[in-house]
Structures
1.
Amino acid sequence: MIDFWLAAGLLLLVALSFLLIPVLRGRRAQREEDRTALNVALYQERVAELQTQQDEGVLNAAQLDTGRAEAARELLADTEGVEKPRESRLGKPLPLLAAFLVPVLGVALYLHYGASDKVELTREFSQPPVSMEDMIQRLERAAEAQPDSPEGLYFLGRAYMAQDRSADAAKVFERTVALAGRQPELLGQWAQAQYFADNKQWSPKIQALTDEALKLDPKEVTSLGLLGIAAFEGQRYQEAMDYWNRLLAQLPPQDNSRAALQGGIDRAAQKLKEGGGAVAPVKVGAVLKVRVDLSADVKAKALPGDSVFIFARAVKGPPAPLAAKRVTVADLPITVELGDADAMMPQLKLSNFPEVQLVARISRAGQPTAGEWIGRSQPLASSTTATQQLTIDSPDK
């Protein structure tokens, strides 16, 4: 910050120069005016001396005139080049007062409206933190300096969770949701922090948060893991295994947390067997494979960036999609899988409906419910294993 304040000081000096230079010039003009008055007084004294000498008979009239002319020439020579003093309507006190107030007001206004805290934070974050406590302090200062930044609040909440400050994390995630919207990942983080803040006591609030998160995204990993933990703590071991198996299906093969998650599933299975229960087989659920392509006519009109929504809906049931995928025209032709893992809502799965219809829609506006062109399949069993061909060939009416 030293270089910043040095630069600010130089700018203040420049501003002060515009106020002080006229004052300094005024002082110079005053000195010139005082010197001129002295020369006039000396001239008058010299003339009076010459007059006295004439009265005493020392000088005649011609000599008196010559002496007066010489004194006048000397006065003219001494006062030549002196500028006429300019009168200021403001006077001297006002510029001096302004010269004092400019730096004071400048510093006060900058401290109130400026961003010195953000400048300092930028410098701090350019250096790696020395500890977790140092990182949390930086994130707290960043959240204070930018209270409307959901990104800063999100990272602060994660840092609080890493330090077992779940109550603080829950408050931060609640603020993050209020700023960024009810995104499934944020809802899951909020529910998890609230669960641990409440000493692992399940509540309707936490249930509502996880339900909302999974409704928005059935694959939301934090909610799945949390529901598994809550079920395990409540000795509902089969339910815990079901949630954790769903979570395990979302993790890539190289993910390091797979081993720990599988260990939790194995412990839940052991607890279930010790209690005399039987472990239910893992439910694979219904999976439909569909290859989507465009007709020649639609291919000539569609744009590469247009959204393509591929989904399955029940022939007899709610109109909401049971499973959906989103790609673009540039990705076509493409083969995708629609299964229970892609369910839009947990209670609406492919395996819950015997007969479904496949639909593919192109929407230039990115809206899944309306678009420009569409393709529909004939009704088929949700247990179908053969790959289905679906061509987008008709205007969407």
2.
Amino acid sequence: MADINFEAPEYYTNRELSWLDFNYRILGEARDKENKLFERLKFLSITASNLDEFYMVRVASLKDMVHAGYKKTDISGMTPQEQLTAINRRVHEFVGLQYSTYNRSLVPMLLQSGLNIISSFKDMNKEQEKFADAYFENEVYPVLTPMAVDSSRPFPLIRNKTLNIAALMKRKNSDGDELEFATVQVPSVLPRFVKLPDNDGKTCLILLEQIIQKNIDKLFLNYDVICSYPYRIMRNADFSIEEEESADLMKEIKKQLKKRQWGEVIRLETEEKIDKRLLKILKKELHIKEEDIFKINGPLDLTFLMKMYGIDGFSKYKDKKYIPQPVPGMNSEEDIFTQISKGDILLHHPYVTFDPVVDFIKQASRDENVLAIKQTLYRVSGNSPIIASLAEAAENGKQVTVLVELKARFDEENNIIWAQKLEKAGCHVIYGLLGLKTHSKITLVVRREEDGIKRYVHLGTGNYNDATAKLYTDMGMFTCNRAIGEDATAVFNMISGYSEPPSWNKLSLAPYWLRDKFLHLIRREIKYAKEGKEAFIVAKMNSLCDRKIIAALYEASAAGVKIDLIVRGICCLRTGIPGVSENITVRSIVGMFLEHSRIFYFHNNGNEEVYMGSADWMPRNLNKRVEILFPVMDEKLKEEVIHILDIQLADNVKAQVMDNEGKYSRLDRRGRKKVCAQEYFCNEAQQRAKEEEKIRNDRIFTPMENSESV
């Protein structure tokens, strides 16, 4: 072991290529015939939206590095230019597979199921054609703004992620061969697809851009339209803020948001058969290289498939919607603070409802004994009941402190709106910390009770977002443990006043000493392994790419520590390297819910320790974010969390396991009982809810003893 350099680049996978592997796993769900048809559409849509964000942030960042002449290698030994080259090759392959899935598998199956996506306006019958033309005249035409390009009208700003139609035109009755260019944006305020009159008993849809193309000559009455093709661009949306030089963080972020529309064009999507003359103009005006052009065999921007999922009449092709169940042991009749006082409460979303978290804030806002509410907000829903309760609490005279993280990527604008609303209601709003993102999920309620001041705390692995809580798997915990309450107060004092306490009781924080905490826990397992004792680590997270953590895991594996990792997305660690990672397994679960919880188990020579938190094992989480790791101390709850990990490790339906070449594949379950972790937890939650309902009913309807004597 002493001779092994556990940080050697050959032991690591490039972060960006690992992310692409993750998107391939999602695409695998779109290709999986065991999934229902409309669920497959959703997965294909997710791959498209994921790829958009990947380009706007990760690829954009690499391009910035190349422009700046930055040549330092990453964790796997690749320069920024080498990464871009590898990404470009992989993404072109990926897009080809996306559209092969759409064209060869999904579209024919949709047709069989009674849904006809008309691929060209030429395929419409007379009735449909008449309907489409009327729709254009009445709904679309008034919204459109055609833009010609000539000596007096420069090439217009093409907005990020918008769908547009480019056209080549020739003036009518003109003797010359000169062609002119024009472009029109497909309005995002209108539905992307239009329902046409049914044909042969089938529901018929056509995309909005095809209706516009069919009628494009009506936009240029003095011209003959030679050709028209849709196109779409992606811009660099990765902006950095000089926080130390910014007097007003909110103003600076607002300014940077506007600049996103002017960012460098880093990707151009066009229809596969686009006219070469048209493509040449786009390439020149958008300043884009050939390798960044994607010629698409099908409709651009497959994210429309997510909205198509909502079409009525196809329920048998969709999974039955899961309804989150009541939290075991909790009831709506009893005050939530009384219930928390009886003992810590574990929440496992979306299997159990997020309502107790919303009710926690709501009850606190109206409880006359509550003195203060303090909360961190990273991403919230569009019509957040939590925001409404916080505003109500301030209006009721309570001390309300809210950290709204304005730098939450792509939620900046939304969070600015919420921050301003809270301020108007009288809340004390903090806009994040200088140089850091506050990613922790914590709420503190301070309450006056008969025996003095008591602190109630909610800690979680996911955002305070009631909408995504139905889609993401996350863990949460209510507690009124004195030590955690003291730490929670210290967290908010540090956030609002920069006063870090000399010591902490139970919580571990990034960026201060969370990495050291994890390294200590890993090295403790190494110590036990070297002593010949059982040593075991299980860790579940979204991403793993921190070099020091991975090196420590390699050292632990080499020492004989058994390590099982459940990593949904990026994983730069490689398994099966002789003498380095032979004792490590990595699996990724992609299912109907987005795996989002972070759970960490350490055997500790039989004195098992379980932690949960907001941080992945990534440099950004451990170095540049305020994150919280909290212990699960109640023995019963600890057993429950270990049970959750055990079921995920037993999954042989949605889990894919990494091999020694870094490739993922499904497990061979021949002769083995089928275990799908997400289905298991749904069934388990429903069964527990039935059992509790039966107990309640038995209490209500059981006849009184000795009723004859009454």
3.
Amino acid sequence: MNIFLKELKSHRKSLVFWSIGVFLMVVSGMFKYESLSSSGQPMNEMLEGMPKSMLAVLGIGEFDISTATGYYGLLFIYLLLMATIHAAMLGATIIAKEERDKTSEFLFVKPVSRNGIITAKLAAAFVNILILNIVTFVSSLVLVGKYSNGEVVTGDIVVTMAGMFILQLLFMVIGSSLAAVKRKSKTAASLATGVLLLTYVISVAIDLNENIEGFKYFTPFKYFEAKNVMFGGGFEFTFVLLSGVLIAALTVVTFIFYKKRDLNV
């Protein structure tokens, strides 16, 4: 319990900054929606002259951005990127911080098993990503609802936040497993972020070229896309199952390799 509380305390400032960032992203996005919708120009017509490649990079896709839910679907990819980057870095740093801060020896001589240590660390990381998800959910619910003009948005926001949380968990254990496996775990955070950005680039490439759609199983950003979960009938069982298997497998990898780690002080 002491390790769990210590980890929560050590990451609270970072969590506050990320929470503020997410909140400001939702605020700025919905303010932009308000200004565009009140301009008098049809919002979808503004996109017609843009090349497909730019629309894919921006994550606009097939959204009807004249509606609050459609615009939120556009905004969601940026919220998802922020949340998953936070999760990947958190998963890596919460494992690697003892080497970074030169406190490995102090931690490992305590009368706590390594399984107990990693359980406490992952539990603290879980609480952090849960709080960030809740902040994103509440901010989205309040601000999107404010500009929805009577449109029902709660269900769409709930389902996207559920998808986001699964991906947060996935990238958290990607980060933690990399930190546990790597001999120099201090570089795990940058490597985890690199993996995240690579999978995002793959998802953009799939949007640009339908012939490589089979690669969607290799990029988590295709598992719970807003256009599918909001307007396509909810979650696809295959992706939920695949996410669960990956999360479980990478959690096991984290435990196994963390137990084998040498002290690098």
